[in-house]
Amino acid sequence: MLVENFSPISFKSYPIPFTDIINLDFSRPIAGEVTITIFDSKGIPVFESEVTDPKESITLEFPQGLPDGIYVIKIQGFGVMESKRVVNH
Fold first, then answer.
1. Which whole number is the average pLDDT over 77-89?
2. What residues are paired with 67 via a beta bridge?
3. The Cα angle at residue 11 between residues 65 and 66, in degrees rounded to 5
4. How many CA atoms lie within 13 A of 26 on its CB side?
5. DSSP assignment, residue 77?
6. Where are the alpha helices (DSSP H) in the chain?
7. What is the pTM of this model?
8. d(C-alpha 58, C-alpha 33), whole Å
9. CA torsion, points 26, 85, 7, 30, in degrees to nearest 10?
10. pLDDT tens for residues 24-38?
11. Which of 25, 32, 30 is nearest to 60 (CA)?
């Protein structure tokens, strides 16, 4: 049995508040596929993207017209599973 040793990967997002673009910086490079999902305040997904090998950072563009408010961004996949609140303005 192969046991893989992963140190947790965290991320920071900016700018805060974001408009239609948000940048994500990871605590270490990611070599694999991750799913990035944005949920509105009711827990309904409003954006989802699968990204392969994002390395240390990624920039995401959201559909225009996303209402202002608080959202939760969830990143799940290769060595990472973390959620953070972000604000859209």
1. 85
2. none
3. 5
4. 25
5. E
6. none
7. 0.81
8. 13
9. -30
10. 999 988 888 999 999
11. 25
Minimal CA–CA distance to 38: which of 22, 14, 56, 16?
A: 22
In the numeric block, which tokens belong to residue 65? 């017209």
**Amino acid letter, 17:** P
- Residue 44 structure tokens: 């309904």
Distances (CA, A) of 38 to 6, 26, 33, 73: 24, 17, 17, 4
Predicted local confidence at residue 50, as pLDDT: 93
State how far the Cα of 79 lies from the Cα of 10, in Å rounded to an integer.
10
75 near 41, Cβ under 8 Å? Answer: no
C-alpha–C-alpha distance, residues 74 and 24, integer Å: 11
